Amino acid sequence: MNPAGQLALALRPPASMAARDFVPAPSNAQARRWLNQTGWPDRRLMLCGDDSCGKSHLLHVWALRRGTSVIDAVSFDRADLVKLVETPPAALAIDHIDRVTSERALLHLLNLAREHRTTLLMASRVSPMRMPMILPDLASRLRAITLVPIASPEDSLRFTLLLRLIAERQMIVSKPILDWLLKNLPRTGDAIVAAVDRLDRAGLAHGRPLTRSLAREVLSGLLDEEDEKPLW
What we know:
Helix content: 40-55%
Order of helices and strands: HEHEHEHEHEHHHH
Number of helices: 9
Strand content: 5-15%
Distance between the termini: 26 Å
Strand order of the largest sheet: 2-3-4-1-5
Shape: elongated
């Protein structure tokens, strides 16, 4: 057993963004149909959904197929814009639109894309109507983009995601615990990711197999309290 207070470091490879690792489901069917089409309105499309719903994965798959890169709106700034001005791409993917830090740089990018007829695919946690943009011109341009929602994951998709994350961390989890997690965790992909991360760290720190009592302890505050049932 690890000494008390020892730091547990879970070293694992980043999540795969390959097309073969994306899990098709009814909740993301509409998004997949749009991405298989051409001729988007104004050559722009925005995927919208909660964290860990698959929108960033789809964004990367589309970018790879188009032979272009993915820009993170969180870090995109004027210096990045200058590089794109020099060599405007035919297509571009932009993630985390709702977390943009340089609104002016993003506005200029949208204008540049229109000027050069660049196809844009974007992703956001919320619709542009709910984004607190400061620049009116940017807000109006974003609200004009065709929005494609990704729904909450079905039980089958949640189960697949749970199994995949557990396998990536090489964790050993019994079927009763898996069933209990699916029953009591919020019905979002983000909750599954957060739960597995907590359980992984707890397992390393305690140096013992995962039990239901340990799972209940480390997931305190994350579980749906109304749906939670006694463990025994």
